[in-house]
Amino acid sequence: MLTKPEDTQPCIARYGSHADDRRAWARSMLGTDSLAPYVIGRETFAHAASICFDAMGGVALEARRADMREEVLTRLRASDHATVRDARTQGALRAAGIEARLVPDPAASVAELFDERMQSHANQGAVADVRRAFPRGYLAVQFSADFGDDATLARIAHQLDLLAEASDTSIVLFRAGAAPWHDDIAVYEHTAQRMRQPAVRIFESLNVWDICALIAKSAGFAGSSLHGRIVAMAYALPRVNLQHADSGKQHAYASTWETTDTPGVVPVEHLQKAMLDAMHADREALAACAAGLAQAHRAGFDPIAELACRT
Q: Which letter does DSSP use for residue 243 in this model?
């Protein structure tokens, strides 16, 4: 995911089936032999005063190869403080003898911490263009490149047509990221071509604040991105995740933090119904959920802040 899109397939073809060559390439790119280099250990920062993990996700850890899993667990055991963002990860770590507090993802605080910046991006540039184009409101829709086969795109286009008509809103397709295996603008172009609904637009900006502001000013979020959902949660908006082959983290987060009447992760065929249900949710309950999650993350982060102050 650190390569340029045009270099990804040649890289896979060259290294994908050769473990030794793959490890050598990874070492040259990252400067480490670690199987999980994003989980920092004391061997990397030997003189660090403290190493903390804030609201980690790890729903796939149990399915990883044993040596990678043990590397991660060893580093977590040696850390000074660790919290997790969903009950499934918490259970997996508890089974390995690691007690970790349950804390919402840091993005749950995005409205509390960065609303002024969000408003600024909403009132100018790409987001302002969308708001002017669709004054009656729009749904922010995103799905990753692995939804990109023709049959699935046809189903998504049909559901979006039905949803736009039933909700009297427009559809804005946006990318939550453009790294390899993330979102592909060509997939959105093919979807828009299949739709009968004329009020559809592809949002091209990849500026993270534009993306957040687009969601914040929408009538709701539908997509495969977990953090798209979390931003919508922070702004007390209707939200639905689309189910795909690797939606474990979305299931785990929604089942941990959502209220019982809020749609979680649904198949493409249920998108219209689930999104309409979400749009009829109690807005006061959504606002209370947003405030509660922001407060819960702040409380969960306090021990890390205290450790930082001591050093």
A: P
Domain residue spans of the chain: 5-104, 107-292
In angstroms, rounded to a whole number, what is the distance separating the alpha carbons of residues 172 and 201?
5
Q: How far apart are CA 263 and CA 225, in angstroms?
A: 15
Rounded to whole angstroms, how far apart are CA atoms 203 and 93?
39
Mind listing the pLDDT tens digit for each residue in 233-255? 999 999 999 998 788 999 999 99
Extended beta strands in 111-190, E state: 138-142, 170-174
Contacts 24+ apart (CB under 8 A), 193-196: 194/153, 194/154, 194/157, 194/158, 195/157, 195/160, 195/161, 195/171, 196/161
Angle at 106 between CA 179 and CA 140, to 5 degrees: 55
CATH superfamily, domain at 107-292: Glycogen Phosphorylase B; (3.40.50.2000)
pLDDT tens for 111-159 read 999 999 999 999 999 999 999 999 999 999 999 999 999 999 999 999 9
Answer left, alpha or beta for residue 31, where phi above 0 means left and psi between -120 and 50 means alpha. left
**Looking at the chain, how many residues does it have?**
311
Does pTM top 0.85 for this prediction? yes
Rounded to whole angstroms, the Cα distance separating 71 from 175 reads: 33
Amino acid identity for residue 140 in this structure: A
Element (H, E) at 159: helix 150-167
Residue 298 makes CB contacts below 8 A (sequence gap 6+) with: 109, 112
The DSSP element (H or E) to which 242 belongs, if any, is strand 239-242
